[in-house]
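Q: Could you fold this chain for me?
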Amino acid sequence: MKPPYYAVIFSSKRKAGVLEYDSVAERMKELTMQQPGFLGISSARSADGNGITVCYWDSMEAIKNWKNNNEHLYAQQMGKNEWYESYSVRIAKVEQEYSMEAL
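A: Sure. Below is the predicted structure, expressed as structure tokens.
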């Protein structure tokens, strides 16, 4: 990805014993990758339920369109009502990027 672009950083604490979460989370990942303006995704979750997902987008408009996707709206509502003890969403503009890979 070549900057500038946007990162939506979703961190959460999942409740224990939630149903349906894994299948909906996988569907959201698949659906996200089909959205116009989508650039990439990475996520991780620890055994204690803490997780973070970062989605990369080419514009704020693409982020707004994803936020208002009908299936995503369902997942958001389930998250608020059933799945999460807490969560936060942060949106950042990435101005610079660099990395290193071992040979």
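A (continued): The two ends are 21 Å apart (CA to CA).
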